[in-house]
């Protein structure tokens, strides 16, 4: 029946034939469906079309894939066919990169120009990611159409990869606390709690910004991390509330919230933390502090220095799933260990 199933679960029409030189050539055509029954019907139509003398020219255009759509249509088809592989924000990022391609059929000078453009504003590691996204797109094009060349396959940059983030030093933490108190004195409660929750939980910015009042259980003294947009499946977790947050008035702050704890900032489907992280980026540059994500490294470093077992610190940071259990009635040994781990933070 000339059918082939791709690794992404999409059915293809596949036809092989011999050239005059004696070599064999294979043509593939995406049927755009994951249903085998539907794929059989579409493949049968293509097969009969290719053997019809009355519309032979039309069949040739379809089977040999001579006519390639525009770059915009190709990008749209690629994103639609592979959307199940990515989260929404990841898809949005890839789309933004592919739309920077000047044309479909590129020359080496075009790739070099694009690479140099990215290097002016991005790190080597990020540029390599962009090149990788383009390479995957052109590999997909090669499977769809003839006459496509992938010039992104062997252009990975060599050099020093961006240095990993460092934890806050003791002096930086003192400055961090003092600046947070100043924000509170100015009436900037959301900004204050955005900093404090990140400091005493190790949550990612996007996780903090998705917290709802119902995600804070004051009876069991825990945060439930269960947002709509999480980085990984292991991000769903339970984190004990640090006593310092209760001392600072977390209960009172919750009484002023209705939908989200960080409802001061407008959220988007792709990222709940876009606005607060942009604010903190400007804030920390003015005050000489590390970035927000470095708070996670600070939490990890302090727990490691205090001798917290790796499986417990990983459970708090959302790096594992399933090994740490939580008993709803508070009798689980695991949650007690997690509380001990959180309480080691100064």
From TrEMBL:
PANTHER family: INTEGRASE_RECOMBINASE PROTEIN MJ0367-RELATED, PHAGE INTEGRASE-RELATED. InterPro entries: DNA_brk_join_enz, Integrase-like_cat_sf, Integrase_catalytic, Tyrosine_recombinase_XerCD. Residues 163-343 form the Tyr recombinase domain. Belongs to the 'phage' integrase family. GO terms for molecular function: DNA binding. Keywords: DNA integration, DNA recombination, DNA-binding. It comes from the Bacteria. CDD domains: INT_C_like_1. One of its GO terms (biological process) is DNA integration. It holds the Pfam family Phage_integrase. This is Site-specific integrase.
């Amino acid at each position: 029946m000339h059918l082939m199933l791709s690794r992404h679960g999409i059915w293809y029409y596949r036809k092989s034939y011999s050239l005059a030189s004696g070599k064999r050539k294979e043509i593939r055509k995406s049927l755009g469906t994951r249903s085998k029954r539907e794929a059989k019907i579409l493949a049968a139509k293509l097969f009969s079309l290719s053997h019809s003398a009355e519309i032979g020219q039309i069949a040739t255009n379809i089977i040999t894939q001579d006519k390639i759509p525009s770059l915009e249509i190709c990008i749209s088809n690629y994103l639609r066919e592979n959307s199940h592989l990515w989260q929404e924000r990841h898809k949005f990022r890839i789309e933004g990169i592919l739309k920077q391609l000047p044309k479909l059929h590129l020359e080496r000078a075009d790739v070099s120009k694009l690479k140099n453009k990215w290097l002016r504003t991005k790190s080597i590691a990020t540029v390599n990611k962009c090149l990788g996204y383009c390479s995957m797109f052109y590999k997909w094009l090669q499977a769809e159409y003839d006459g496509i060349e992938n010039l992104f396959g062997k252009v990975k940059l060599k050099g020093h990869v961006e240095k990993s983030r460092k934890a806050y030093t003791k002096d930086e933490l003192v400055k961090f606390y003092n600046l947070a108190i100043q924000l509170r004195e100015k009436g900037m409660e959301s900004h204050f709690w955005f900093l404090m929750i990140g400091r005493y939980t190790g949550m990612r910015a996007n996780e903090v910004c998705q917290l709802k009042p119902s995600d804070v259980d004051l009876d069991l003294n825990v945060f439930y991390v269960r947002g709509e947009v999480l980085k990984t499946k292991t991000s769903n977790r339970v984190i004990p509330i640090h006593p310092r947050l209760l001392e600072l008035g977390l209960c009172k702050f919750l009484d002023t919230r209705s939908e989200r704890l960080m409802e001061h900032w407008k959220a988007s489907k792709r990222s709940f933390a876009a606005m607060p992280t942009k604010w903190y980026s400007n804030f920390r540059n003015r005050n000489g502090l590390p970035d927000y994500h470095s708070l996670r490294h600070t939490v990890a470093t302090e727990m490691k220095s205090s001798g917290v077992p790796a499986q417990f610190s990983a459970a708090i940071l959302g790096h594992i799933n399933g090994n740490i259990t939580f008993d709803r009635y508070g009798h689980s040994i695991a949650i007690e260990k997690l509380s001990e781990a959180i309480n080691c933070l100064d």
